Amino acid sequence: MKRVVMTLSNPFKPDPRVYKEASSLVKAGYDVTIIAWDREEKYPKMETMNGIKILRIHIKSCYGLPLCFTVGLFLFYLRSLFLLMKMDFDIIHTHDFDTAILGFILKKMKNKVWVYDVHDLYESMVKLVSGEKLARIVRYVDSYFQKNADLVFTASQKVKQVVQRNNKNVFVILNTVNPDYLKNLPKYPTFTIFYGGVLSGNRFLLEMLKIAERLGVTYRVAGKGWVDVEEILKKQLGKNFLGFIPHEQIFVELERAHLTFAIYDPRFENIRLSLPNKVFEAASVKTPILVSRGTALAELVESMKIGWAVEYEVRDVENMVFFLLANPKHLKKAGHIGHKIYLKKYTWNFVEQILFGVYPWGG
């Protein structure tokens, strides 16, 4: 049995992409351990979930504050390396740029096979928070990591095209789901827009709050993230602010809502090229989605007919919500057609076969 250690910089509550990959590898006969960073210090230090062994490192840190995060991350690296140097395993599978250094070190020091899972183009995220200068440094370092990895996964074809400049051994593992979550639940009695995910300042969350107020529709939000955004939503939404909820509950909220959205600022490369899991989650429960025009996500949504692309500005989004509020038949049609296309091409079962076919010592 080949042994895999995965690393990630969140507490694995669980992280949906990591959980799907790890569960599939366990099913294929791999022994999988996850080393996760619990910066809230609130989850068990050791746990087994669906055959996956989880080791959480408790180091207090925060969200949305770069310096605080960097100090905590450095301490996480030290503790992780201490564990990894003592562990016996065959493959180190690092998730995203912020744990890639662990894969690089283990490949060089212990000659381990390194799988680098690029969830996002990290340089674009750094540019948003810290500016162009630091983003250029991240781009250089990330390119070096990509060149040295034995195998690279991305979550979209367009991100793959970027990574292929540095490494030809790149495969797309779409961040999709299986259709098990569809329960045929009734919609909420009043028109409801739902968002579940990271709460940050570039995801149209506060803009949608104002749109919902003006149009008199219900707006429900679940997730954690930037403290200032979270506080505004909590204050304005009251009981419709759900905070962090289990992943399974996200699908209940999605299915009962009339509309969801993934409207992110398309000025940033990562947003233009990536395919977040929200479109697949929405399609799995027949709920239409609004996304930003000019992105890979918009191309996917329009090809699946599960939603509509809008400009990243209040007037265009408000006009679209108003139109859908007045013409609910378009929502029902999009949900039905999008779900059918998703079942034919985009469930996790299809992606899992790619994972099995390319993973080191697979099959």
From TrEMBL:
<dbReference type="InterPro" id="IPR055259">
    <property type="entry name" value="YkvP/CgeB_Glyco_trans-like"/>
</dbReference>
<dbReference type="InterPro" id="IPR028098">
    <property type="entry name" value="Glyco_trans_4-like_N"/>
</dbReference>
<protein>
    <submittedName>
        <fullName>Glycosyltransferase</fullName>
    </submittedName>
</protein>
<feature type="domain" description="Glycosyltransferase subfamily 4-like N-terminal">
    <location>
        <begin position="18"/>
        <end position="180"/>
    </location>
</feature>
<feature type="domain" description="Spore protein YkvP/CgeB glycosyl transferase-like">
    <location>
        <begin position="205"/>
        <end position="349"/>
    </location>
</feature>
<feature type="transmembrane region" description="Helical">
    <location>
        <begin position="63"/>
        <end position="85"/>
    </location>
</feature>
<keyword id="KW-1133">Transmembrane helix</keyword>
<dbReference type="Pfam" id="PF13524">
    <property type="entry name" value="Glyco_trans_1_2"/>
</dbReference>
<dbReference type="InterPro" id="IPR050194">
    <property type="entry name" value="Glycosyltransferase_grp1"/>
</dbReference>
<dbReference type="Pfam" id="PF13439">
    <property type="entry name" value="Glyco_transf_4"/>
</dbReference>
<keyword id="KW-0812">Transmembrane</keyword>
<dbReference type="GO" id="GO:0016757">
    <property type="term" value="F:glycosyltransferase activity"/>
</dbReference>
<keyword id="KW-0472">Membrane</keyword>
